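Anyone up for a design puzzle?
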């Protein structure tokens, strides 16, 4: 039963305070523990919202309550009419946007709007790029899912490679976006699985190519050079230190570092969830990084004043929207990568260094040092590997300290 697994409620979204000190009133839809919020077009202060939602509101509060209940009733009617509940179907019918869910471009639009509402700006940009690429190839207003067969994808693939010059990595990303929406359309009952074009070459389907990128990690000798490098400016010093922080803090990405708060530091450890996977349906595990002397020095050198609610580093102020956070972190990544182009040339490092290199080097150097793969996977937050379940919790602090020492074990590294 659709209704049995779905619930509706009216809530005040306190994440988005407006200039008049009101908050948006949202319709929260929960289906099988997956929760989404949708705009009602209204906003209120906390006090007014309490008066609106009490048992017997009066005057203007009663009028607003009636308007909100009408929207809730509309949502209930939509859910009652659905054969199988799908957020993809519910959103266009509730908002009047992105209709015709059996159409590929409409499904792209609806899902992109969904991602933006959830604050998943990076994913939204990826799907926008994939949609725009497909539109340039097809050049018609409407495209149905059942039109996308193996022949269609092969032509699209060839166009991206030969005419647009896209890399295999980019092609793979765009096709995986299309595949994800196709799967959602099948689940919602908009297209039959009989039409599904993706799968193995051996079964007459289209197999999405793997990335052609070769990920290279630094050697421990290269890491030593970066540690000992004398920066030419304060900016170069800060960006070098943030890169080292990433390397030492279990390969934390730059967004994780920007969002890190002092309350995430306790008992000599940093405990945080990867921003990349925090909204995933799979239950992600927290990443636990030991505070080494080097990490402590970097925090003292560049950190804000210690306060539980303060960000550790001064890149964000705390009032940024998801889009602004994305812009700040992207700019910081770009700046760090530019600085490391110069540092790499000066130090004659063995590979090109980017912010991602820190994460890859963290894992690779520990692996080369004989550290169990299960420990490394847990440290990186790879919760989907069954062999690593609850593995990190089995290590005592002293054992973890011994493992982390491998990251700066420079003895004999020059050999």
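Challenge accepted. My sequence:
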């Amino acid at each position: 039963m659709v209704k049995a697994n779905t619930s509706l409620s009216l809530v005040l979204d306190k994440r988005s305070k407006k200039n008049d000190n009101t908050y948006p009133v949202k319709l929260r839809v929960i289906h099988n523990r997956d929760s989404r919020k949708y705009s009602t077009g209204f906003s209120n202060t906390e006090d007014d919202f309490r008066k609106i939602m009490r048992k017997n509101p009066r005057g203007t509060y009663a009028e607003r309550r009636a308007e909100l209940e009408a929207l809730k009733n509309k949502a209930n009617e939509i859910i009652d009419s659905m054969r199988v509940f799908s957020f993809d179907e519910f959103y266009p019918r509730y908002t009047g946007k992105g209709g015709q869910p059996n159409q590929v471009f409409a499904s792209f639009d609806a899902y992109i709007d969904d991602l933006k509402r959830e604050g998943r700006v990076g994913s939204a940009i990826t799907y926008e790029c994939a949609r725009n690429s497909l539109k340039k190839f097809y050049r018609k207003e409407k495209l149905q899912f059942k039109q996308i067969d193996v022949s269609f994808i092969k032509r699209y693939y060839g166009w991206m490679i030969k005419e647009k010059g896209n890399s295999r990595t980019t092609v793979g990303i765009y096709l995986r976006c299309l595949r994800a929406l196709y799967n959602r359309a099948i689940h919602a009952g908009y297209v039959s699985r009989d039409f599904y074009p993706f799968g193995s070459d051996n079964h007459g389907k289209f197999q999405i190519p793997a990335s052609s990128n070769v990920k290279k990690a630094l050697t421990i000798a290269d890491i030593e050079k970066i540690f000992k490098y004398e920066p030419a400016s304060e900016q170069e010093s800060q960006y070098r230190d943030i890169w080292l922080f990433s390397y030492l803090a279990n390969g934390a990405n730059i967004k994780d570092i920007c969002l890190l708060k002092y309350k995430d530091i306790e008992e000599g450890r940093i405990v945080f969830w990867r921003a990349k996977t925090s909204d995933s349906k799979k239950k992600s595990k927290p990443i636990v990084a030991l505070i080494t002397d080097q990490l402590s020095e970097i925090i003292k050198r560049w950190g804000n004043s210690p306060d539980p609610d303060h960000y550790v580093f001064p890149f964000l102020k705390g009032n940024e929207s998801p889009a602004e956070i994305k812009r700040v972190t992207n700019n910081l990544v770009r700046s760090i990568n530019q600085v490391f182009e110069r540092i790499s040339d000066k130090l004659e490092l063995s590979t090109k260094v980017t912010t991602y290199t820190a994460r890859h080097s963290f894992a690779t150097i520990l692996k080369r040092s004989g550290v169990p793969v299960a420990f490394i996977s847990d440290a990186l937050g790879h919760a989907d590997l069954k062999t690593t379940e609850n593995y990190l919790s089995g290590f005592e602090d002293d054992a973890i300290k011994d493992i982390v020492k491998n990251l700066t074990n420079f003895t004999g590294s020059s050999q």
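A detail worth pointing out: Residues 220-408 form a domain with the hpI Integrase; Chain A fold (CATH 1.10.443.10).
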